[in-house]
């Protein structure tokens, strides 16, 4: 609270407290941050973009790679002077580092007031009021989203996230997610449909369904039968005004037939699929506990492309996994050549304590660096080619914000490319047909189609 606010007469409404949230990592964290902001709204907090004026700073962390966790501690170090100036400042650590490190965070950084794991966000207001422990990282039985209030009055941006599933039972040998986010839990159909309808009523036209293993979602449907993820997408596509559906992230082994068929049958389902493969070497895939081979992945891609020929594929790769040889790396390069990705994320292997791979001997770091460079160069070439292929095509673009240059609008194409259009004829939230005329490094330029 500012000095001004405390000087106002007691009967006047005091100025809202300011909440600054920094979000690290994946889209699930972006979604969680939004929900926490809404929950804290009930406690009188409004969001600020300026950390210096905040009454509370919340760091929503990521634990997936070592660097992500180290970033938290350096950011906390930088908060020390702010806390010294403002002893009432509340500092909270949320997310997967909070889950993994718990009390250790407060021990290392005594300026931290609250530590809250991803499954306990609904208790944040209580924690702040001192009605719950200040370190909460258990996995409760109830659905945290039931307890997180939504501000149903506020209009939303045209594209929104919706978490449908959390956690992961796959236990890839390198990954902390099964430990930080826990076992797979699917949210019930009714909740998901309700939240989707609510978002659409608030101006949303595109929903990205989120889950650590989103295509593993399953639940009892409205008809009492067990629904798979494809059935859920079909039900969502019946919501009037929901023009686009996307989902992320998926495991190849959960690409069920009904989901592949949804790509063929549901026009609202965008022709874009993020399907991590991690490696193209069977030896490494086995060591990673991915439970599929390179050929099985390639066959799956064939089936998906048969259902939706214009689909764009993206993936994740880990380079330098323990035991990776030149031949394994060459196998990964060949898989990339064979599939042809629209874009992809690639990471140097990072040993994470508590995972099975942590104990294994690492490969030479310089070799891993060189392989990563080579792999990224190939992926960059493929991304360029995919963008080049868009030139001359007419695509749907959902406009999300004005560009920096006056008269310019920015939206997302069906394939998730950012598209810049010079036009005064569209507004935020419009979905228009755009002819692509140019490709830049990470975006496209287009003109409104007649
Ligand atoms: N080291 C490097 N990359 C990792 N990922 C997950 N765990 C690790 C790790 N220990 C990558 C995987 C995953 C993505 C979200 O992060 O590629 O798909
Ligand atoms: Fe981690 Fe994804 Fe493997 Fe689950 S499927 S363990 S989230 S990499």
TrEMBL record:
Transmembrane segments: none annotated. [4Fe-4S] cluster 1 binds at residues 26, 62, 96. GO terms for cellular component: cytosol. Keywords: 4Fe-4S, Cytoplasm, Iron, Iron-sulfur, Metal-binding, S-adenosyl-L-methionine, Transferase, tRNA processing. Residues 388-450 form the TRAM domain. Binds 2 [4Fe-4S] clusters. One cluster is coordinated with 3 cysteines and an exchangeable S-adenosyl-L-methionine. It comes from the Bacteria. It is found in: Cytoplasm. Belongs to the methylthiotransferase family. MiaB subfamily. Monomer. This is tRNA-2-methylthio-N(6)-dimethylallyladenosine synthase. It comes from Paracoccus onubensis. The lineage of its organism: Bacteria, Pseudomonadati, Pseudomonadota, Alphaproteobacteria, Rhodobacterales.
